[in-house]
Structure formats: C-alpha cells, structure tokens
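Treating backbone geometry as a discrete language has practical consequences that deserve illustration. No coordinates are needed to read the tokens, only the vocabulary itself. For completeness, the protein is quoted in full, as a sequence line and a line of structure tokens:
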Amino acid sequence: MTAQDALAVPFTAKLTVGDYLLLDRSGAFDAYAKTELIDGAVVAVNAQFSEHFTVSNRLYMRLVAACAVLDRDVEAWMEGSIGMPPHNVPQPDMFVTNTTPVSGLVDKDTVPLIVAVASTTLRTDLNRKLRLYAQVGIAEYWVVDVKAQVIHQMWAPSGEAYAERRVIAFG
C-alpha cells in the first residue's frame, strides 16, 4: 500500500509534454479546433478569420521564397507542434526549421525562427510566448500585429527576453 503525503498548500499541477500527447491521442481535445500546451496548461486556440489567414498566407509565401534563396537547408512551415519539454508544445502560425518534420513533434533545437500572427492574441504573443521562446533559445521571433500592420522582430535571446528588437511596417 502506498501513502500520499498531505499537501501543505494546494497547487495547480502542470502537464508534461508526454501527458499532453497522451491526452491528445486519446481524443481529449477533439472538441477543440486546435490546442497547445503552454506552461503546463492546455490552451484552446481561436479560430482564424480572414484578416488573420490572409496575412498568414502572404507572409508564408514570402518565407518559403526567402528560404529557397538562402544558402542553407531551411524550410518554412505552417502550424506545426514544436516540442519544448518539459511543459510546452506551442503551435505557432509558422516557423522555419532546418529539418523536414516526418512524425511527432518538431524539435525546438531545429527551429531558428517562429512567427506568430496576432489579430486577437497580441498581448499573449508579446509577453508569455516571447518569454517562452527566449527561454528555450529560439534565435528569432516575429509577432505580426495584423491591426497595426507591423511586425515586431526580436532576436538574440537572453534569459526570458530578446536583447534586440525592432518594429517594421508592412501592408
């Protein structure tokens, strides 16, 4: 028989990447269009409406073209699951990787760029997600602000922030 120690203070348990994948495979998230694991919590993601997917598609086509021109083996992808153990599986709008995803999660160490297109998630993308991506060493992170028609470009991760950033207009 096993005994469980009494908790001195209640806490919220964080799911691990393995927990999340097991729940996903079991169909626990089937009622939601898309979910991701952020800081151990399952987050249901908004549907994409025309202003979001129009900007996403145009930027994605440009990223694909830019990757083709670069003298490196990198490819642009849309909406993949990136493993960031132990408690994160974000699903960014797009990312660039130096490997071809075949099965399972994309390894964060193969991803030099993540792009978020924000029509309703700007605060989360510029705060919580920025800290996450900087912490795990994603070299560059862009947040496309659909309403303001600017791209927040951040690079040189350092701790929970990016040391360098600029804002570029588009549209």
Q: What stands out?
A: The mean pLDDT is 93. The helical segments are 17-25, 50-69, 122-126, 128-135. The first helix runs from residue 17 to 25. The chain is about 25% helix and 30% strand.
